[in-house]
Amino acid sequence: MQLTPEQQLQARQWLAEGMKLSDLQKRLETEFGLRLTYMDVRMLVTDLQVMPKDPDPPKAPPVSPDTKVTGPATPVDPPASGGMAGGVRVTVDTVTRAGAMVSGKVTFSDGQKATWLVDQYGRPGLMPETKGYRPSPTDMQEFQLALEQELVKLGM
């Protein structure tokens, strides 16, 4: 596929502005009446010797040397009792525990602490410091939400 010098210049400009190949394909059809397959557009970009711009990566939150700490998560339902003292705090380990994809620690609203992990199969695990401790359903719900937010920040 041959473009005129003016069309080549315009296509280079669109790509320099960050246009994606699929958008370039549509634009070539609407602006110049050129109906190209996606593969043709890829070849055209190669011929033009232009590298499409990658989108800017999302900004990573600052990471402390040991762990990353979040504040209290927002519960889905307000607690039925008089409220929570300190909320649930989740940290993510910078060095993941053996046998886990990701691990960290959690402090529940009653001050009880536990270690958590997600294994290679995506199964969660929770190991409380106090034997037999079970967090309240509200705390577990808040923990799950806070953990999900942290994992999303890490790109998981």
Counting DSSP H or I runs of 4 or more residues, the number of helices is 4
State the distance separating the first and last CA atoms: 41 Å
What is the count of distinct domains?
2
For the largest beta sheet, what order do the strands appear in spatially? 1-2-3-4-5
Decide which structural class fits the backbone.
alpha+beta
CA gyration radius, whole angstroms: 25 Å
Question: Which word captures the global form?
Answer: rod-shaped
Q: Which percent range fits the helix content?
A: 25-40%
The helix/strand order is: HHHEEEEEH
Structure characterization notes:
- The chain is rod-shaped and about 75 Å long.
- A hairpin with a 6-residue loop joins β2 (89-93) and β3 (100-107).
- α1 (5-16) packs antiparallel against α2 (21-32).
- The chain has helices at residues 5-16, 21-32, 38-48, 137-153; strands at residues 67-69, 89-93, 100-107, 113-119, 124-128.
- It contains four helices and five strands.
- With 156 residues, it is of the alpha+beta class.
- The two termini are 41 Å apart.
- The protein folds into two domains: 5-48; 67-153.
- Residues 71-85 have low confidence and may be disordered.
- The longest helix is centred in the last third of the chain and has 17 residues, at 137-153.
- A five-stranded antiparallel sheet has the order 1-2-3-4-5, with helices on one face.
